[in-house]
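I'll show a record.
***
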Amino acid sequence: MTSSGGGSSSKPRSASFQPSETSSKRKRGVFQKELQHMMYGFGDDPNPLPESVALTEDIVVEYVTELVHKAQDIGSQGGKLSVEDFLYLIRKVLLCS
């Protein structure tokens, strides 16, 4: 996933979720238990469908990966990420939505 210029993603968004190359190569199910607990906390069944957990995991990993890439683009210390870079992005995303 490379981004060009202003930190916006160059890949088109579609209505259906399609995992990126990165998410298809990674080990899946690492966050399964944590996501099940979070999904239950947000009103889902205590034992959500495995497909729902897998989809949620793919979405979360994709979001965090994009956030890290954007933080690298705006990074203030030549390649080093700081907490402030992430806080800036989170504030920027919350204000824009």
Q: What stands out?
A: Residues 59 and 89 are 18 Å apart (CA to CA). DSSP finds four helices and no strands in the chain. The two ends are 23 Å apart (CA to CA). The chain has a mean pLDDT of 76.
